[in-house]
Automatic annotation (TrEMBL):
Enzyme Commission number(s) from the entry: 3.1.3.25
Enzyme superclass (EC): hydrolase
Swiss-Prot/TrEMBL GO biological process terms: inositol metabolic process; signal transduction
Taxonomic lineage from the root: Bacteria, Pseudomonadati, Planctomycetota, Phycisphaerae, Sedimentisphaerales
rRNA-binding recorded as keyword: no
GO molecular function annotation: inositol monophosphate 1-phosphatase activity; metal ion binding
Protein name: Inositol-1-monophosphatase
List of residues binding Mg(2+) 1: 65, 87, 89, 209
Record flagged with keyword Hydrolase: yes
Annotated InterPro entries: Inositol_monoP_metal-BS, Inositol_monophosphatase-like
Amino acid sequence: MYSKDVRIAKKAARLAGEKALSELGNIKTSFKNGNEVVTQADPLCQEIIIDEITRHCPEDGIIAEEGEDGNVLVLPPKGSRRWWIIDPIDGTNNYSRRVMLFSVSIALFDGGRPAAGVVYNPASEEMFEASLNGGMFLNGIRRFCSEEGVEPQSMIAIDSCWPEGIPQGIVELCTKCKLRNFGSTALHLAYVAAGSMNACIVNKNRIWDFAAGAMLIQEAGGRLTYQDGTDIVPLNPKTASEKNFELTASNKVIHNRVLGALIS
C-alpha cells in the first residue's frame, strides 16, 4: 500500500545524501536555539527532499527540522491526513566535524501512525527501509530485530544527553554488555531494527529524529515506547513537533529489562 511512498523517500534520501557528501569539503557551521549545530548543507538537503516529495505528493503535509530562525518547518496538508517528517542530516554534529556517522531520515505518518520510513547512511550507502505490513529491509535484504538478551557481546545504544545523570541501572548494564553512541538517533534505531544492536535509549529527541526509525522497528518486530513503557502512537505529528521525547527501542526480549534499568 505504501511501496510507492518508500520509493519516493529512497530517491529523496539518496539525492540528499549525495548533496551532503558533496558539501563536506567546505563545511560552514552556525548555531540555532543556543547550542544546536547547523551547517549550510542541512537546509540544502532538506530542500531537495521536500521538492521530491511535493512533486509526487502535493496534498501531503510536511514537518522538517530546518525552518526559519531555528524553528520547525510545518507545511500543513491540503485535504490529506498524511504527514512527511524529515531530518535532512541526523547527526549534524558528526557531519560538521567530518565524522562519517550521519543519516538522512524520512518518514510518512498516515492517520497518526507510521506508514513508511527510510534511514539512509550516505557514507556507507546503507539504505534501511520499511512500510506498513511490508517488512524492514537493509539494502534489499529482509532484516529483523535480534532475539538476543543482555549478553557480553551484545550492544545497546545510549543517548549522549542525561540532564539528571545516567541512572544506576544503565551504569550496571555497562558491566553486562557493550554500550555505544554513534551520534545519530536515526542510525541507532536502524541498527536495532536490523538486529545489529539490541536496544536504543533516546533522550530529549524530536519527532524527526525517530519517526522513520519507528517504522523500521515496528516492521522488524521490535518495540518502541516511551520510557514508562506506554506506546507512542497514535500521535499528532504537528503537535508532536513541538515537544521532546524520551523513548526506548529494543527487541522484545530485553525491552522490559532496559525500561527497568532506566527507572532504577
